[in-house]
């Protein structure tokens, strides 16, 4: 008997309305045809050059993220719930960031302490008291969601620094429309193609230069970065320049881009490099990825940075535990989206519980990402758990623990048959001075190994296209 929710089949074992057209399509399509389409999809991705880098392995570091051709489907009502919850949560996170780097009303109210904020690794002291456009710090947020029941969605992580994956969301849709045009003709799927335009509008909203259109650039660490394809893709889609640190200069506290026609003023930088490397005068002195003087220009209000330095404070896994209270404190509302129960191992009582229940829990580094540095207790050997326990005891404040959720499954083309595999969902939330924008859907990540709960591409996971139906039922 299943102990997890299946996206396609309800608890009664019947096909859910949202998947009616998909179930009929799968029933009518032989597995050899699906395999042919899967191979065609792989060729398309290779031709486009959609890869990511894995630096922990030897040999060729470039990998093609496995793509599953069976879409994940949400009906209009499900998406409406998620959309409202996402807007609420990201609004609260931005309020918290503005408060943490400002007057700290949440501390005065006794909800958090100054030490709690100041001691977080992602806290950026250089941002204290800095005025940012619209009080918005995380302009591009990727919120990782998991499902455990028909109406049960949990936030697993808030990615508020430089979330990646949106290029895969867009390319997945383009490939699916090319491979299965007849299926799209039968099912009313909400489009995601407007994301680059929404992103550009969000970035432009951060500044209002007099007498000229805002100049927006994407700042990349360069071609050896694991997400370089996405940096280049988004710059192309928005019609803006992709620059590296050597391409920009700061003069008179203003930022300029070097061009063949001379220097051009830059008003907004969508930066895809970490805080530490933005400006060697303000952060790491050995950085060659950013530009000297960039932070001074930013503090003077002469350039906007998205996301703002220090935004990572809001996605620290130790801060995550307090987001529901932030929703209540800043918005006066009850959270629409649930948090996963979390134990902060810096707390002695929590640590003792975690140590006694390692075989039941998932333990994560507070600053970890990509599935690295984590323990999935139920799937780990005793030897692995014992070794991890020693790491945990040496540095407990670096870890949090959560119960092992029964992630929902979605039909996946596994070899020659369709089989359920666990999935999560990362929608992308854009917050500008002029409001919040979310395209319907997001990046569905899938654990391709039977029984695995790890969906990260760096850990062997893959991706799916995410369909949000225009209306309930079959989407017509």
Structure report:
The protein is 30% helix and 23% strand. It is α+β, with helices and mostly antiparallel strands. A 5-stranded mixed beta sheet has the order 3-23-22-19-18. The protein has a 5-stranded mixed beta sheet with strand order 13-5-4-20-21. It has helices spanning 20-28, 31-48, 76-100, 105-108, 114-118, 166-179, 181-186, 195-204, 228-238, 294-299, 317-320, 323-331, 348-356, 382-394, and strands at 52-53, 62-63, 67-74, 140-149, 152-159, 216-219, 241-243, 248-251, 254-259, 262-265, 268-271, 304-306, 338-339, 343-344, 361-365, 375-376, 399-403, 409-414, 417-426, 428-432, 435-438, 443-446, 462-468. The two termini are 33 Å apart. The chain is built from 14 helices and 23 strands. Among the domains are: 208-302, Rossmann fold; 341-404, Dna Ligase, domain 1, CATH 3.30.1490. Mean pLDDT is 91; it is low at 55-60.
Biggest pleated sheet? 5 strands, mixed
As a percent range, the share of helical residues equals 25-40%
- Uncertain spans: 55-60
Q: So how many helices?
A: 14
Structural class assignment = alpha+beta
General shape: globular
Radius of gyration: 23 Å
**Could you give the order of strands across the largest sheet?**
3-23-22-19-18
CATH class wording of the domain at 208-302: Alpha Beta
Could you say what the CATH architecture of the domain at 208-302 is? Answer: 3-Layer(aba) Sandwich
Gap between N and C termini? 33 Å
Strand content range: 15-25%
Overall average residue pLDDT: 91
Query: How is the CATH topology of the domain at 208-302 named?
Result: Rossmann fold
**DSSP strand count:** 23
């Amino acid at each position: 008997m299943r102990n997890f929710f299946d996206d396609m089949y309800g608890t009664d074992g019947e096909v859910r309305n949202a998947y009616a057209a998909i179930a009929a399509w799968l029933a009518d399509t032989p597995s050899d045809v699906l395999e042919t389409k899967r191979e065609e999809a792989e060729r398309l991705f290779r031709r486009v050059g959609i890869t990511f880098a894995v630096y922990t392995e030897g040999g060729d570091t470039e990998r093609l993220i496995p793509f599953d051709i069976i879409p994940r489907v949400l009906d209009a009502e499900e998406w409406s719930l998620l959309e409202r919850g996402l807007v609420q949560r990201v609004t609260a996170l931005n309020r918290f960031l503005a408060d943490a780097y400002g007057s700290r009303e949440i501390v005065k109210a006794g909800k958090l302490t100054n030490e709690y904020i100041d001691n977080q690794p992602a806290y950026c002291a250089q941002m204290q008291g800095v005025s940012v456009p619209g009080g918005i710090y995380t302009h591009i947020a990727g919120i990782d969601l998991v499902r455990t029941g028909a109406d049960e969605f949990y936030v697993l992580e808030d990615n508020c620094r430089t979330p990646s994956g949106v290029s895969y969301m867009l390319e997945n849709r383009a490939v699916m429309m090319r491979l299965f045009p007849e299926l799209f003709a039968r099912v009313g799927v909400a489009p995601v193609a407007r994301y680059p335009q929404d992103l550009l509008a969000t970035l432009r909203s951060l500044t209002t230069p007099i007498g000229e259109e805002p100049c927006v650039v994407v700042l990349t660490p360069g071609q050896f970065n694991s997400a370089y394809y996405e940096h280049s893709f988004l710059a192309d889609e928005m019609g803006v320049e992709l620059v590296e640190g050597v391409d920009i200069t700061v003069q008179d506290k203003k930022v300029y881009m070097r061009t063949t026609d001379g220097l051009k003023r830059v008003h907004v930088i969508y930066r895809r490099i970490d805080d530490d490397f933005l400006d060697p005068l303000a952060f790491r002195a050995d950085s060659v990825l950013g530009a000297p003087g960039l932070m001074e220009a930013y503090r003077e209000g002469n350039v906007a940075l998205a996301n703002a330095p220090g935004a990572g404070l809001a996605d620290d896994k130790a801060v995550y535990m307090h987001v529901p209270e932030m929703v209540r404190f800043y918005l006066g509302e009850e959270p629409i989206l649930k948090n996963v129960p979390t134990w902060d191992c810096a707390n002695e009582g929590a640590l003792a519980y975690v140590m006694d229940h390692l075989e039941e829990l998932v333990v994560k580094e507070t600053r970890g990402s990509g599935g690295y540095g984590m323990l999935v207790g139920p799937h780990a050997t005793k030897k692995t758990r014992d070794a991890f326990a020693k790491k945990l005891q040496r540095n407990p404040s670096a870890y949090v623990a959560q119960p092992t959720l029964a992630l929902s499954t979605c039909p996946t083309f596994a070899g020659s048959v369709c089989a359920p595999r666990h999935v999560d969902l990362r929608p992308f939330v854009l917050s500008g001075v002029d409001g919040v924008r979310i395209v319907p859907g997001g990046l569905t990540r899938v654990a391709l190994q039977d029984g695995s709960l790890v969906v990260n591409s760096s850990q062997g996971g893959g991706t799916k296209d995410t369909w949000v139906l225009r209306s309930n039922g079959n989407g017509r």
